Amino acid sequence: MTTDRTHVIVGASLAGAKAAETLRAEGFDGPVVVIGEESDRPYERPPLSKDYLLGKADRETIYVHPEDWYAGHDVDLRLGVAVTAIDRGAHEVSLADGSKAGYAKLLLATGSSPRRLSVPGADLDGVLYLRQVGDSDRIRAAFQDASRVTVIGAGWIGLETAAAARAAGAEVTVLETADLPLLRVLGRRVAQIFAGLHRDNGVDLRGGVHVTRITGNDGKADGVRLADGSHIAADVIVVGVGITPNSQLASAAGLEVDDGVWVNAQLRSSDPDIFAAGDVANAFHPLLGKHIRVEHWANAVNQPQAAAKAMLGLDVSYDLIPYFFTDQYDLGMEYAGYVEPDGYDEVVFRGDVDRREFIAFWLGDGGRVLAGMNVNIWDVNDAIQALVRASQPADVAALRDPETPLESLVGR
Fold it and tell me: Residue 64: how many CA atoms within 13 Å on its side-chain side?
C-alpha cells in the first residue's frame, strides 16, 4: 500500500469511526485504515452502563455503523490487533501481528482504560470493571445471580452501575473516599442531590471510607474490608475509580504527553502529521483558553470530526462546549460547560430541587455562567450552552426565575 495519501486511525472506537466517516464525507478518496485491539467493530460506550447494561437495548444498537458500512465506504477496518509502536521517521505503525501500516497522516483515538484497584485481593474473580462491551456483558450476567453488589467509586460509572444493580433486584452498597458522590465534579450542593437519589432508591451509600482489602474464598471475591475494620459481604464487586488515557504509544514515540496527548485546537500533536481525539487528547480549548481532556461521549463524537478535517488541511478549530448526560432511576440529566473543582463562586438553582426538576448554574468570574445542568427538564441545553459561550455576567435573579426564558438572557 502506498503511504503518500494513506490516513491511519489507531483505535476502532467511536472516535475512530467518526473520524473515518468524516474523511469520506469531506471527499477524501485515499486509503483509510482503522486499527482496533477489540474484536468488535466500533461501538458507543454510554449504553454499556445504561440501557445495554439494564437489558433494555440489544447489542446491535450500540454499534456506530452497520457491519457493511466499512467495506461500502472503502475503509480498511482491522480488528483484534493492537498497534505496538509508531515510527515517526518512517511514517508507519507496527502491529502486534508483525505487520506494518504506513501513513501520511495518523490519528490517535486510543481512548482510556479503567484505573485498577491497588489493594490485596483486587485480582480475585468477581472483581469487575466496566469499559468494553464484554465487561458490560459480564456485569449484567453477574447482577442476575447476585443478591449483594458492592460498587467501589461513586463517579458516573459507579452510580450508573449501582442503579442497574438495584434494577436487577440486588442489595447495593456504594463506597466512596470523598464525603459525597461526584463531589469534585459537581460541588457539595449538587452532589447531595445525587446522594439523596441513590439513598431514596435503597442504596447503602457510604462516603469518606477507604477500601483496604478485597476478601475472598477459593479465589472468588466475597467482600470488602474497610480501613475502620468493618467488612461488607458481596457476591459481585464493581470498581469504578476513574480512567487514565491510553497515551503509551504517543509517549514511546516521543510526542508531548501530559495527562493525554498534548494537542492544539486543530487536534494536532507535537508532530505535525499526528493528531489525537477523544479520551486520549488533552486539547487546547479556544473558548476556555486552556488545555482540557474530556472523557465524555459528545467529545468522542465531535472532536474526531474536527481532527479529520484538520488532517485534510481544512481550517478548523475545536471549541464545542463540553457536554455529558446520565440516566439513573427516574432522573435524567444533561450538563454543559467546564468547571474545575472549586473553580466557581456559587451555584444558582431554578426550578424544584426537592422534586429533582431543576436547572443548576455554576457561576464564576463576576457572575459568568461556567456550566449548567438541567435535571428532568428538557429542550433547554442549547440555551445553557449559549449562556456558557456568551462569557458574560448573568442576571442572577433572571437565572433563578423559571418564567424568564433562558434564551432571553443571552446577550442581556
Answer: 20
* Cα 78 to Cα 81: distance, rounded to the nearest angstrom: 7
What is the SS3 assignment for 128?
strand
Q: What is the pTM of this model?
A: 0.95
Please, what is the average pLDDT of the chain?
96
Domain 7-113+244-311 fold: FAD/NAD(P)-binding domain (3.50.50)
Q: To the nearest whole percent, how much of the chain has pLDDT over 70?
A: 99
Question: 405: helix, coil or strand?
Answer: coil
Q: Could you give the dihedral angle defined by the CA atoms of residues 111, 339, 186 and 122, in that order, rounded to the nearest 10 degrees? A: 30
Alpha-carbon gap, residue 342 to 361, rounded angstroms = 14
Query: pLDDT tens, 148-190?
Result: 999 999 999 999 999 999 999 999 999 999 999 999 999 999 9
- What are the start and end residues of each CATH 3.30.390.30 domain in the chain? 330-409
pLDDT digits (tens, 9 = 90+) for 162-173: 999 999 999 999
Alpha-carbon distance 5 to 138, whole Å? 41
Find out whether 238 and 149 touch, Cβ atoms under 8 Å. Answer: yes
Q: CA 25, CA 293: separation in Å to the nearest integer? A: 26
Q: What is the DSSP string of 63-80?
A: BSS-TTHHHHTTEEEE-S
Could you read off the pLDDT of 42-98 as tens digits, one per residue? 999 999 999 999 999 999 999 999 999 999 999 999 999 999 999 999 999 999 999
Give the CATH number of domain 330-409; options: 3.40.720.10, 3.30.390.30, 2.60.40.10, 1.10.238.10. Answer: 3.30.390.30
